[in-house]
Automatic annotation (TrEMBL):
The keyword Ligase applies. It is an enzyme of class 6 (ligase). L-histidine binds at E81, G82, T83, R112, Q126, E130, R257, Y261, Y262. Belongs to the class-II aminoacyl-tRNA synthetase family. This is Histidine--tRNA ligase. It comes from the Bacteria. Its main location: cytoplasm. It catalyses: tRNA(His) + L-histidine + ATP = L-histidyl-tRNA(His) + AMP + diphosphate + H(+). Its EC number is 6.1.1.21.
Amino acid sequence: MKFNAPRGTNDILPPDTLKWQYIEKKTHEIFSNYNYQEIRTPIFEYTELFQRGIGEVTDIVEKEMYTFADKGGRSITLRPEGTASVIRSFLENKIYGQAQPTKYYYIGPMFRYERPQSGRFRQFHQLGVEAIASNDPALDAEIISLGMRLLQDFGLDDLELHLNSVGCGECRPVYVEKLKKYLIKNKDQLCDNCQSRIDRNPLRVLDCKNESCQKVIKDAPKITDNLCDSCADHFDEVQEYLDILDLDYTINPLLVRGLDYYTNTAFEIKDNALGAQDTVFGGGRYNGLAEEIGNRDLPGIGFALGIERLLLSLEAKDIQLPVESGVDLYITVIGDKAKKESFKLLDKLRSKGFKTEIDYLGRGVGSQMKSADRMNAEYTIIIGEDELNNNSATIRNMKSGDEKEIQLSNLLEEMKKLVDKEEL
Ligand code: HAM
């Protein structure tokens, strides 16, 4: 073999593609119930959008972006996430001039140069939502419940919702200074990585899994005790709305997300069964992002869910999505004349919506039947010259083995009855 797919990427093959189609179909349905509309932005953007949007001192921007110069010498980056692009598009297309809030969703591939492991890839897929131009805490609850509803619909109803508020441009810098002072005091007990984070991005220390750092973190000042009145009220109201929806959550003051644009509400939905990469979806408010990339003071909130992680979570719980491969009818042919007549029948059946298949390898009846079996055909029919001459053939239910003699000219009507689940 000369070529492999690049490290950290996956081919998604049938029958797995059926699961992806199912997830995408459900996403379109559920998101549209909540009145979110689909937006499709380019897969690459000018690098500066992500530098400004996600933040210079984040793992994504520092280490993980697929960045290259195009033939015109511009710096281009494959999108590592969707939010910055959606806000860029919202501003560029002046959607703020229309009735608000704007509620968008997207499904598609994202790219991060990370060390691949279970649940972590270099090309992965997100489905996400962004609600722009409202700071209403009810919208925070709507966004969170929408994500939970989606998971519930796939059969996942025991995942943990972690909730935090990371404050705003007023109260967070004050908190960060307080945290910094505390971390400097306890510097000796922090791992090397965290020691270097104190100055650059002290909030990320709260995320460290190192045992000795954990001891320091346990007694660190908490953002939830340091919110300004307006942020504290907002956070209270978000919780009130979540309570109205009967959604369980754990307040986790250590929850800091890996992107710099967050303000106020931040959340993650975790599945313990997933190991190190246990976040199925995460998101929050980003009330300063539109200002950062387009000088407009517009609030926003959203989340993104990793489709690969969703599939891993389903697998860990042995949940099968209701997808079916297979065909309604396999036409087994004997001889050239029958093949040609059957080819016409095949076309007619397909045009009426029946999934129908025929042999293309000139195989004998036995091999064709095996092939029908492998294809999960629900019914087969054998057509040879005798059947054509007598306008009669036997249709067989592959599961039960039941058979029925039908008039060939009636095949379409018979299939209609059968697929409507009338027994043979
Ligand atoms: P994020 O937490 O970076 O947030 O990613 C969201 C989700 O994408 C993660 O919870 C995970 O399921 C999935 N994910 C991230 N990186 C990988 C990877 N390397 N391999 C597999 N799955 C991955 C964002 O991207 C924000 N844009 C979410 C958001 C939207 N916040 C507000 N609006």
